Amino acid sequence: MKILTHLRSGALRSFKAWKGVLVVWVLILFLISLLALPVKSGFKSMIGSSMVSELLTDTVNIDVITDLGTGMGVIMPVMTIGLLLVLFFGFLMNVFVTGGLFSILGSNNDSKPSSRFFAGATSNFWSFLIIILTTLAMLMVTASVIGGIPIMIVRGGDAGTAEPGVVGKTVKIVLIILALMLPLFLLVADYARAWQVVHEEKKPFKAIGFGFSRTFRTLSVSYPLMLILVAFQTGFGALAASKLLSAKPDTGKAVFMFFLASQILFIIKILLRAWRYGSVTSAMEEVSDVIEVSPDQSVRDAELLQGQV
Q: How far apart are CA 261 and CA 263, in angstroms?
């Protein structure tokens, strides 16, 4: 029952945070365009007003391919550097917008989501960066231990005496185990970030400690919750990718509709991400419902009750 409550609360929070979702979409689209536009200009300058497309329509023209290969040799280094820069700045932007999304998904927020988005993204940037890097490091170490040791044992060390097919089966089992463990790491990271947003003190390692504690204290609720959210995100991503890859727009209007559909699917993907953050934030806020009374306060309350008798 709690799982459904958190899922419903997360969905409502994500829809209410639609302005933040649009901000994330615009920022990521701008970042991608920094690579796409120069590459497009490079191809246009390489092809120019030639008849390349017509020459390659019905047959393979070796001369055309050779000429394109020479041009690609010039463009590829630029594309590689541009792709690496986009990946690097994309990672930093992901940290930034994640801080903004978590900041507007809480239940005790004012009526200015845009300003709160950028304020939360800025103030939580370094803490979120440490949380994400630490979680990724823990995931990589865990994957190395769980994946490396069994494969080394199966292969018999340097002897290489493994039976045919055993290594492949072992790899499949390891991948399944890691896939089942992934929600745990996501829970730790999300709980840590949700905790960090509601605390003014920027202590990412304390937040990670809370993430571990909250994850394993509420494992019976938190794990199925995250499993459902990850299943929705993965399923939608696979469906969207299959539809986009199978589409073959051949006219200007078809290309425009393809671009429009891809952006709508991308916005839905960001909404699903916000749904996950909102659901975890809802689960985290259960901690705030428990009022902790200090010993001094208990003594004062006892004295007050004695005075009233």
A: 5
Q: Is the Cα dihedral 244, 250, 252, 254 positive or negative? A: negative
Task: Give the count of alpha carbons within 13 A of 275, CB side only.
Answer: 20
Distance, CA of 24 to CA of 99 (rounded, Å): 11
What percent of the residues of the chain are helix, what percent strand, and what percent coil, each to the nearest 5? 85, 0, 15
Are 3 and 252 a contacting pair, CB within 8 Å?
A: no
Closest CA to 196 of 276, 115, 271, 95: 95
CA atoms within 13 A on the CB side of 272: 17
Distance CA 38, CA 107 (A): 43
Of 92 and 165, the structure prediction assigns the larger pLDDT to 92
- CB atoms closer than 10 angstroms to residue 11: 17
Distance separating alpha carbons of residues 211 and 205, to the nearest angstrom? 10
pLDDT tens track for 120-138: 999 999 999 999 999 999 9
Q: What per-residue confidence (pLDDT) applies to 96?
A: 94
CA distance 174 to 180: 10
**Is the Cβ–Cβ distance between 103 and 118 less than 8 Å?**
no
Q: Where are the beta strands (DSSP E) in 102-219?
A: none
> Residue 117 in contact with residue 104, Cβ under 8 Å?
yes
**∠ Cα 28 30 33 (to 5°):** 110
DSSP letter for each residue of 226-250: HHHHHHHHHHHHHHHHHHHHH----
Between CA 190 and CA 10 the distance in angstroms is 13
Two tokens at 226?
Answer: 């995250």
Angle at 74 between CA 72 and CA 80, to 5 degrees: 85
Find the helix or strand (DSSP H, E) in which 210 lies.
helix 204-217
Residue-wise pLDDT for 265-279, tens only, equals 999 999 999 999 999
According to the model, what pLDDT value does residue 160 have? 53
Q: What is the C-alpha to C-alpha distance for residues 205 and 301, in angstroms, rounded to an integer?
A: 35
Radius of gyration of the chain (CA): 26
